[in-house]
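Researcher: Quick sanity check before group meeting.
Model: Go ahead. Protein one:
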Amino acid sequence: MVLQYRVPDLNQIFMDNKTLGKTGEDLAVRFLKRKGYTIIYRNWRCLLGEIDIVAREKDFIVFIEIKARRSLSFGPGYLAVNHRKQSKLIKLGQAYLKRYGLTESPCRIDVVSIDMPESGADFEIELIKDAFWENRT
């Protein structure tokens, strides 16, 4: 699902990558809430790394990776979730489930891709549900 939004002067909003990431996460949270997700954690951390968002959608615990980009030179944001990143997200999800005694709970990993070109005021948010699986070949 792809939605388009208009925001004022992106060049002033996105001064650096940290600001871009925070703004992307804020936009993603608002978008996900409108889609019926309940946000449990933002930036959940353990020794293995960080999950951008942990949420609940219906009966599922959902681990969400947010990818915001200013340019489409390297393609949309979701393309940055390569095999290495997927493996890390799977391990992080397993660590979360184990820590909270939820290993029997249904879960999945979603990706929110936000394309925010610097040159224009339009941006797109795309939600990819169940983006990949542990045993996919």
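Researcher: Fine. The other one?
Model: Protein two, sequence then structure:
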Amino acid sequence: MVCPNLAAALVAVEEKAGHRRDIMTGYSQEFTISFGDCDPAGIVYYPNFYRWMDATFHGFLRARSIGHAALCRQLGAIGLGLMETGMRFRAPGQDGDRLVFSIETIDWSERSYRLSYRAHAGERLLVEGFETRGLFQRDGEGRLRAAPVAPLRAILG
């Protein structure tokens, strides 16, 4: 039996722990896989999926705000850097496939945020990936530190 209030209870626990999930309403970016994106077996060389995932993130920033560099200037940040990334490869991509990379969710914590991605070619799910990123600023001694991400979240909506 499923408790009808289970989802609400889980959200309350996450928020109490300082985590918040925002379901994205579907930012997607399209790419066409070309021969040069593939390895000798004729399938996408895996680092290209990371390149497209990063390009999707930066496209999302441009669509929601003013782009990475201007956003960092506005927030007094050095960058919106990676802290962790990963990917599961579900099916191969091939030359000529139209790839649609989508940001599915963003999970917000105090000093980081985790983006979940999916990439499809038609109906085929090719990859599922994630990035954990931070808003980096220099402290009083010049060291990079993860800053609170609430100002970034307010801008991105």
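Researcher: One line on it for the slide.
Model: Residues 1-17 have pLDDT under 50 and may be disordered.
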